[in-house]
């Protein structure tokens, strides 16, 4: 690992100002992706700006219609938050199955979304629940936030402060995970709102995406059978040593059906 300087930011504006002043600096959240990259010498930031102690990024607020989670809240705290589990159990359940216990204790919501790993779980929740990503300067709809593999709409000096998740009528997340990394080979988040159903898929392509065919079928009939009856094309899906594109295409409606069954339970 190369040498670097370390700063602990006190507020979002100070953190962003430090990045603006040094184009080679990086925000440090949970460090679960950045630090391994640095150890492999694939990244060489001049400074790490630690944002995990900023009070504005550490809170969870819950009401009947909206869950707001600070960007520096770790996965374990989302999973264990009693009121959040009551109002949005699918979101808490998703957080409870990210990685292993150490990853959940250190990894953060904002870090996961900003990194936008193709197989990360939180992007599916953000897209499935029609979340709004709030930075120190603007609000970004989830549909505009995820741009491509490891790419988002964030500017280099833009910091996620919180994420607002609307509360659905019903929702659930199911993933077929890699047994070693616990990342999703395919993960499917299904959310039913009064306006219709949203289905978001992670792990299957370069970035999280929605499946209109499943959304239409489930909006008409929110049952596992409706999900299983949908055929998802394999074009543009990931094809690698872990799973073929055809296998991932097969898994999407299967996992959607499991998620619907869980949501209806």
In short:
The protein has helices at 12-21, 34-39, 75-80, 82-87, 89-96, 101-106, 109-115, 122-128, 142-145, 212-220, 224-228, 245-264; strands at 5-8, 26-28, 47-50, 60-62, 66-70, 132-135, 139-141, 146-148, 151-152, 160-166, 170-177, 184-193, 196-202, 209-210. It is α+β, with helices and mostly antiparallel strands and 265 residues long.
Question: Which properties best describe this structure?
Answer:
Enolase-like, domain 1, 12 helices, globular, 5-stranded antiparallel beta sheet, alpha+beta, 265 residues, 4-stranded antiparallel beta sheet, 14 strands, Uridine Diphospho-n-acetylenolpyruvylglucosamine Reductase, domain 3
Give structural notes.
This protein has helices at 12-21, 34-39, 75-80, 82-87, 89-96, 101-106, 109-115, 122-128, 142-145, 212-220, 224-228, 245-264, and strands at 5-8, 26-28, 47-50, 60-62, 66-70, 132-135, 139-141, 146-148, 151-152, 160-166, 170-177, 184-193, 196-202, 209-210. It is of the alpha+beta class and 265 residues long. It has 2 domains: 5-166, 2-Layer Sandwich (Uridine Diphospho-n-acetylenolpyruvylglucosamine Reductase, domain 3); 170-264, CO dehydrogenase flavoprotein, C-terminal domain (Enolase-like, domain 1). The chain has a 5-stranded antiparallel beta sheet. A 4-stranded antiparallel beta sheet has the order 11-12-13-14, sandwiched between helices. A 3-stranded parallel beta sheet has the order 1-3-2, with helices on one face. The longest helix has 20 residues, at 245-264. It is globular, with a radius of gyration of 18 Å. The model has no long low-confidence stretch (mean pLDDT 95). This is Carbon-monoxide dehydrogenase medium subunit.
């Amino acid at each position: 690992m190369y040498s670097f300087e370390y700063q602990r930011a006190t507020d979002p504006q100070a953190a962003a100002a430090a990045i603006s002043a040094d184009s080679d600096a990086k925000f440090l959240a949970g460090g679960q992706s950045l630090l391994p990259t640095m150890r492999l010498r694939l990244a060489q930031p001049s400074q790490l700006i630690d944002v995990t102690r900023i009070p504005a990024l550490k809170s969870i607020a819950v009401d009947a219609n909206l869950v707001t989670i600070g960007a520096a809240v770790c996965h374990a705290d989302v999973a264990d938050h009693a009121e959040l589990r009551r109002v949005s159990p699918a979101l808490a359940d998703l957080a409870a199955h990210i990685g292993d216990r150490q990853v959940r204790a250190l990894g953060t919501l904002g870090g996961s979304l900003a990194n936008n790993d193709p197989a990360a779980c939180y992007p599916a929740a953000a897209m499935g629940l029609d979340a709004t990503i709030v930075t120190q300067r603007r609000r970004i709809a989830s549909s505009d936030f995820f741009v491509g593999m490891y790419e988002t709409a964030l500017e280099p000096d833009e910091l996620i402060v919180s994420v607002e998740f609307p509360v659905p009528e019903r929702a659930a997340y199911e993933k077929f995970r890699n047994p070693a990394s616990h990342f999703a080979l395919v993960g499917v988040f299904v959310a039913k709102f009064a306006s219709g159903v949203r289905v978001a898929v992670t792990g299957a392509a370069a970035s999280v995406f929605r499946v209109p065919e499943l959304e239409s079928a489930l909006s008409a009939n929110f049952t596992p059978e409706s999900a299983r009856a949908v055929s998802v094309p394999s074009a543009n899906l990931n094809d690698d040593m872990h799973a073929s594109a055809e296998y991932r295409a097969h898994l999407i409606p299967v996992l959607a059906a499991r998620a619907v069954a869980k949501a209806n339970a």
